[in-house]
Amino acid sequence: MAGWRWPAALSGTLLGRFVVRLAGWSMLIVLALTAIGYSTIYDREEREALDSLKAHLLERGRTESAIFQLAASNMELFRERFLALYADPAILADPNFDTFFERGADGATRLRQQYFDGMVGPDGIRRAGMSGFIGGNQKVISDELKRRLMLSYHLLADYGAAWQNRFINTTISTPENAMIMFWPAFAWGREVEADLDMTAFSVVRSTMFAENPDRHAVWTPLYHDHTAKAWMVTYQLPVDYQGKHLINAGHDVLVNDLMDRLITDHLPGSYNFVMAADGHLVAHPLWMDRLRKELATINLQKLGDEGLLRTHALIRDSVERRKSDPSPDENVWIVDDVADDAYLAVTRLDGPDWWFVARYPKALVAATAHQAASAIMAMGTAYFLAMLVLVFVLLRRQVADPILQLKNASEKVAAGNYAAVADGETPLPTATQDEIGLLARSFQDMAVRVREASDSLAEQVALRTEALDAANKQLEEWSLHDALTGAHNRRAFDADLRSVFDLAQRQGKASFALLMADIDHFQAYNSAYGEAAGDQILRTLFRVLARQVGQGDRVYRHGGARAAIILTENDPVALEARVRAMLDDVAALALPHQKSPHGIVTLSAGLARFKPDMTGPADMARLADDRLAAARAGGHNRLVA
């Protein structure tokens, strides 16, 4: 507001009258041109941005829907093949059920272990990864159910193996509380509790006639599977024959990649998220931590995010409007979120009833228009400056010279030479009895006060800077060492490895090596002896390693029970001998370790020497890690070099 009162205060002076009139007319012209240009460019940028957004989301929608479409296609193929075999009673008339299944002492009937481990069939083909389960509540298994299960087994053993490159598993369930599964990573049918009743849970129950009379395929909500340690949805296709519910064919569909792409693949300035039509949040970059904690979708009402609730309502209303007035050529549509000042591009993912949404702030469109408006404003400013030249010519004697003196004084103050102004060495129009004279006197008084404050502040800054430098040096030293072992830490390791790698690369020869070493069975040691004992082992072993390194070598705690050592030995034979001596010295301590096959604390190590063709320190660290892994896989307490 002070900027608007200033012209009013000058309105009684010659300068004031000229400034007010000139500024008023110039501002009107500049504002008119700016408004016209802004409106035109905003409309154009809005159209282009929305077209780009729709094209982006259309492609993303097709990409993300592909896996769901494939799941449905696979299960449709399975249904057709199963019904063709089931309809012919001559096929598997004697299913040989007992050869494959066995009833356990717990009352459950399960597929035998060898069909999961793998065995060669009569056709010479080895099949594995199969498990099956019939609940303990099925005391009598009919011949018809046996035939259904064996038909499912034979089809699943072949189809499941063909589909495992895209799907983690393939399942066949029945309304009689039975399931056969192809899942090479987990023998589910061998592990499940005998009293499990799958028909009591929503996945199988939703396929039964009572809850699914129109016999449509079923997608579960998103959930986090503890066995697979992954986000997934389950697809179930009911398979009926002559009015009888025979089986459900299904896939578990992993969606981890979809959620990762959600975070990384978006237009600049925008972000993507996924909502379920039933009001659950499936994925959102701002809520991923909460989703990972819940390990499932989150009801928007429970989440309490008013913005997302409003967004869901907007999209839901737009979906209802499209039902009454569909646009068959538009798989992507735009929703105007006025409250959040953003555009929402929406597409429906085939399969689960999910909406894939891209949020594009209107501010991005406005930014381009603002640039154009700035150009127009710049031209208007040029006109305004021309008017100021006229003012300068007319009022030079009354205004220009005093202002020049004030300018020179301002430059002195800006350069820190307050004394030149405060002591009167720089001339100022302090003798004039108008506004400029008042300003000059006030400016000189200000220079006096600023000089006094500056001198005091400089003294305080010098004292505090000295204390801060000392504290920073101490913090820098602490930041490069591990508090537990006293060894250099990961930060120091990364910096030193980069330094010696760059030096070796410039020299073009193998001038150093990197050793990665792990304490064998350290987690088991902690469990058996306690974390305090584990900490003491770390301190002891790092002291031993520190004594073994030579001049120019350095030991680091790389994390957990892992040590990293940068060695400057050039002779490969001597280098390997030194490292083996380190491992022998650790073993020679004979520190008891009852959970280790060796009975004592030992090290496994991987050694990598610098090669000129390596592209960066990461190559060397990765090679050392791989050799460490080989040492551990080879039985621990050894070096792989």
Summarize the structure in words.
The longest helix is centred in the first third of the chain and has 73 residues, at 14-86. The chain has four domains: 23-87 and 257-287 and 301-377, 2-Layer Sandwich (Beta-Lactamase); 90-254, Beta-Lactamase (2-Layer Sandwich); 395-462, no CATH class; 490-640, Alpha-Beta Plaits. The chain contains 20 helices and 22 strands. It is 53% helix and 18% strand. Helix 2 (14-86) crosses helix 5. It starts with a helix and ends with a strand. The protein is an alpha+beta fold and 641 residues long.
The coarse silhouette is flat
Which secondary-structure class do the elements indicate?
A: alpha+beta
Report the top-level CATH class of the largest domain.
Alpha Beta
Domains, number: 4
Q: Give a quick account of the main beta sheet: strands, pairing sense, barrel closure.
A: 9 strands, antiparallel
Number of helices: 20
- Mean of residue pLDDT? 84
Question: What's the CATH topology label of the largest domain?
Answer: Beta-Lactamase
Q: Which consecutive residue ranges, at least 5 long each, have pLDDT under 50? A: 1-6
CATH superfamily of the largest domain: Dynein light chain 2a, cytoplasmic
For the CA atoms, what is the radius of gyration? 38 Å
CATH architecture of the largest domain: 2-Layer Sandwich
Content of β-strand: 15-25%
Number of strands: 22
Helix content: 40-55%
* Cα end-to-end separation: 75 Å
